[in-house]
């Protein structure tokens, strides 16, 4: 996983803060034009060929943060015009991802390379194991013929000196479903018929070329218009800031939200319903059931492993149930889900109860723009406190455990957890699909409940997190236990 503290991530967050500050001051249209030149001032060291090229790239990054597609970029159209469009739109636009070709830098195609660690040894296992005869020794060093090489990797696997390395294309390497490839001009393109919106490409791209289109401008506008805007914050948010749930809710209200509801309450509803559904499915003789809370996983099955689709739980996600709670409490409210997930943006487009989806980076930028220190925020008293197990939906294994503690006979559960949908995770799904159809045999050890999280570590490892997942896991434990006495039942 690419370190979340890198220059590309810092640029993204700085742009978000600048946009939020301008909008809150009522100066977005007049001020947005100056963001690129302020971030790349005259005399500063350029990242690319010159400062003017850097500014052009920054213009396109600002477009994405405004919620516009970079593919629609017009040289003659000022940023003020894009800002005006963003302030006027009623709904987020499809797709949620946009690719910045100029930043993409046309990465070389994935290939293997011989380094100077090569000893041209007598054994020459690289030559002997290459089925395509693509390797020969020249000037006391192994050489790879790119015209013959098929990128099988056998040379790298057999070199005793580890002298052969793979040069990957990070976004292609990270995509578990092969949805990203180069076009005829060497630029990366996303096949949305395959894409599951896991966000791996966005997280792993070293150039920051894979960008999510922002919705922060939309939410700030609704708040400034005086609408009833309800923040629904995911359990993973509690793992991003060193604060209690009460402080988080206080900070969100200070940021302008009319009401705040913890999505762990919706997770409790999901866990209750999935436990009942699991018992019903087992009683009728189903082989297995899978969880349904990760939209990237559900999309992966429907597009790539249809044999497993009958096993997906019919239960709705925590985001949906929390939006139901919000709409019951405030019938005409604007609902805003806040989390670390790109796939939730896609789910939000499909759910009539969810109006907007903000990333952790976006809510963090709003806090900075308004000068809110969460650690010093006034602590709100929560109307209803979720269970520890509901809050633990954010960590891998948490959903399965939430179902287990709600079963009448917990011993009937045989869980399996797929912690991250990488290429290996997709193979695991395919195996379970074959077991479900009978193409592969099941046995006494075959799991009957499969929890799948697209992000390694769970939602705390999502593509928009701002805190290292290892630290997040510690923070989540403290957060989950704060104010919640009962691990299973909600405290009314």
Key terms:
492 residues; alpha/beta; three-stranded parallel β-sheet; 21 helices; 39% helix; globular
Q: How many DSSP H or I helices? A: 21
- The main sheet orders its strands as 10-9-12-13
Low-confidence stretches: none
Our estimate of the beta-strand percent is 5-15%
How does the overall form come out from the CA principal axes? globular
Class by helix and strand content? alpha/beta
What is the alpha-carbon Rg in Å?
25 Å
Rounded average pLDDT: 93
Distance between the termini: 40 Å
Largest sheet: 4 strands, parallel
Number of DSSP E strands = 15
Percent helix range: 25-40%
Describe this structure in words.
With about 500 residues, the protein is an alpha/beta fold. About 40% of the residues lie in helices and about 10% in strands. It is built from 21 helices and 15 strands. The protein has helices at about 5-25, 30, 35-40, 50-65, 80-90, 100-105, 125-130, 155-160, 170-175, 200-205, 215-225, 245-255, 265-285, 295-305, 320-330, 345-350, 360-370, 390, 400-405, 425-435, 470-480; strands spanning about 95-100, 110-115, 135, 140-145, 165, 180, 190, 210, 230-235, 260, 290, 335-340, 355-360, 415-420, 450-455. The strands form 6 sheets. Strands 10-9-12-13 form a 4-stranded parallel β-sheet, with helices on both faces. A 3-stranded parallel β-sheet has the order 11-15-14, covered by helices on one side. Strands 1-8 form a two-stranded antiparallel ribbon. Strand 14, helix 20 and strand 15 (about 450-455) form a beta-alpha-beta unit. The chain is globular, with a radius of gyration of 25 Å.
